[in-house]
TrEMBL record, chain B:
Coiled-coil portions: none
Organism annotation: candidate division WOR-3 bacterium
Protein name per its UniProtKB record: Hydrogenase iron-sulfur subunit
Keywords: Iron, Iron-sulfur, Metal-binding, Oxidoreductase
GO molecular-function term, one example from the UniProt record: iron-sulfur cluster binding
Pfam families: FlpD
Highest rank taxon of the organism: Bacteria
Matching InterPro entries: MvhD/FlpD
Ranges for domain F420-non-reducing hydrogenase iron-sulfur subunit D: 8-127
């Protein structure tokens, strides 16, 4: 069932009331939601127990510091939560969440997922600069949504075609086409259980919402086609690819922040890569020299091989890169082709097996001979 | 200038393709010395990173050889290998790195003649293509 909470444009305020009531009524034992830090300059997902803290919550905040799916994975890998915990997630992270469940990295028992509409986010450094200079990015965001002006948002978001949560959200908190109200939409029984006791009014027609969402999707799909074509040109061939990745310092931040790169011990950090001085000399003798650190191209190609089949294009890799390498468009472009090759879409269906964990006997018959 | 001699790296499974190479040897059939064979237990043990490493270590082509479909000694390793090769070819194609230098061949233990034929063909094809764009780079 879909509900509408009259908000008079104070959508965040109504969402706070909703979460406060949930904690008040003990419907959940805790909620993971972005909270404004005491500095006032940043927001981070926080497991909230004390309802007073909800005053600082903003489920729609236009900054995406870390993957909540990754955090939930860390918290539930050893054992699931005993009480029910709400988790606020944006659409791309919800896809990350579905992928991590498939890889047995999250125990979803007792989790209630609150998916949020997402118009996009600012680059985290830009968000911080705006906050410091008093520009109030979290408020400014709503003007941008209203004017449908996305020009200042991350490129990853401007090329994202899933501004609304998939079916794995128990409850959707929506604002697209809501005329300034907060929409609360139950997509599962769990979600309905939470919402049914509140006596909210029914949402009525969602035609306006559907219209806005599909126009955003269309615009972003055609923007992505453009970005993809540029990316293809800029990264095609080893010279171009090395120029694109050229500033890589091999810090591995991209893989550390990537929700899909869940391995606790990364192959590229294993003793396989502890070489003797004589190995370096061998390379130098053969090739005339060896760039240091070496094997950065190997790292990126290897990461593409290991995870691009599940890349959701969330852009956390790029945000984490100290050298501002535009990894998201590279990984999304390759990921799309890989996913197409296996008729696979990350986040689409929790029952789908990731391409490298399964096979069919009758497939790819053009290979082998 | 000397004629270009490609380096071909082969990962051949123990039960089929490596045995075919042995059979070729005991039958006194010649195959090009360009091929550097590595015996692996199963084509399904060949991680994508082995193939990438091969190219970064100057291979001009990489061949994974396994048992024919339905004949894998470990039941389904060859099907997994096939998916990985598809994946790598897709990545290499997207990035213009020469996906046509990645080969997957099913060669059974009794197919010594096929082994020689395929290795000769791959060597000739690679010789015609020239050096791999990934080979010999100091800036990787
Ligand atoms: S590679 Fe980048 S865009 Fe893709 S899932 Fe990982 S962090 Fe997100
Ligand atoms: S975060 Fe950037 S610099 Fe660090 S390893 Fe990844 S691409 Fe290279």
């Amino acid at each position: 069932m879909n509900y509408r909470v009259k908000a008079n444009r104070d959508i965040v305020g109504k969402a706070r009331e909703f979460f406060t009531d949930i904690l008040d009524k003990n419907l959940l034992d805790g909620i993971i939601v972005p909270l404004e830090l005491p500095s006032g300059k940043s927001y981070f997902p926080t497991l909230v127990k004390d309802k007073k803290l909800i005053e600082r919550a903003n489920p729609f905040v236009p900054v995406f510091q870390v993957s909540v799916a990754t955090q939930v994975s860390k918290m539930t890998r050893l054992s699931p939560f005993e009480g029910k915990i709400g988790v606020v997630m944006r659409p791309c992270d919800l896809r990350n969440y579905v992928e991590l469940i498939k890889f047995n990295q999250i125990d979803p028992t007792n989790l209630v997922i609150f998916g949020v509409d997402c118009y996009g986010v600012f680059d985290p450094n830009r968000f911080k600069d705006m906050a410091i200079s008093g520009e109030k990015p979290a408020d400014k965001f709503w003007d941008m949504v209203e004017k449908d002006d996305e020009s200042e948002l991350r490129r990853a978001c401007r090329s994202c075609t899933t501004p609304v949560p998939n079916r794995y959200a128990d409850v959707v908190l929506g604002y697209f086409g809501s005329s300034g109200d907060l929409l609360l939409m139950a997509q599962t029984e769990k979600g309905e259980e939470i919402l049914s006791g509140f006596g909210f009014e029914e949402a009525g027609s969602l035609d306006e919402r559907e219209k806005i969402v599909s126009s955003i999707k269309e615009r972003r799909a055609s923007f992505w086609e453009k970005v993809k074509e540029e990316t293809r040109k800029e990264t095609s061939g080893v010279d171009n690819l090395l120029a694109f990745l050229g500033n890589c310092i091999d810090c591995h931040n991209c893989k550390d922040q990537c929700p899909i790169c869940f391995c606790k011990e990364c192959f590229w950090e294993s003793p396989t890569f502890e070489f003797q001085s004589s190995d370096y000399m061998d390379w130098a003798n053969k090739r005339g020299g060896v760039r240091l650190p070496t094997d950065t191209l190997f790292f990126h190609l290897g990461r593409l091989a290991h995870m691009s089949s599940s890349c959701t294009g969330c852009g956390l890799c790029e945000d984490a890169c100290p050298r501002e390498i535009e990894l998201q468009r590279l990984f999304k472009m390759v990921g799309e082709n890989v996913q197409k090759a296996f008729d696979y879409e990350p986040g689409r269906d929790i029952e789908d097996r990731p391409p490298l964990t399964t096979f069919k006997e009758e497939e790819l018959l053009e290979l082998g001979e | 200038m000397d004629k270009f001699e490609p380096k071909i790296l082969g990962f051949f499974c123990n039960w089929c393709t490596s045995s075919a190479a042995d059979l070729a040897g005991t039958s006194r059939l010649h195959y090009p010395p360009n091929v550097r064979p590595i015996r692996v237990w199963c084509s399904g043990t060949v991680d994508t990173s082995y193939v990438i490493r091969g190219f970064l270590e100057d291979a001009d082509a990489v061949v994974v050889g396994g048992c024919h479909p339905a004949d894998c000694h470990y039941i389904n390793g060859n099907y997994k290998a096939r998916r990985r090769i598809k994946l790598l070819k897709t990545i290499f194609e997207t990035l213009g790195l020469g996906e046509d230098r990645i080969y997957l061949k099913w060669i059974s233990a009794s197919e010594g003649v096929k082994f020689v034929r395929e290795m000769t063909k791959i060597t000739e094809e690679t010789r015609a293509k020239g050096k791999s764009p990934l080979a010999g780079r100091w800036d990787i």
